[in-house]
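Hello, quick one for you while I still have it in my head. Could you read through the record and tell me how the tokens relate to the sequence? No rush at all, and the record is pasted right below.
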Amino acid sequence: MLKESLLNSFRNEVKNSNAESFPMFVDSFTNLWDYEFGSLDNLPHDVDGLVADRAIEYGLME
């Protein structure tokens, strides 16, 4: 249940975000998710794509 709640909150935040707030929402979500579940593995495809976009910005992925 916690996973679904976090995912739904994140999706709603991103939907209402702008260019300035989007990175903050992604960073906050990934920090909390990693803290609660130990890794970012097995995220739903849509959320994984949003997180990957942010990782590319940081130069962590190509």
Remarks:
- The chain has three helices and no strands.
- The CA atoms of residues 4 and 37 lie 13 Å apart.
- The longest helix spans residues 21-37.
- Helices lie at 2-15, 21-37, 45-57.
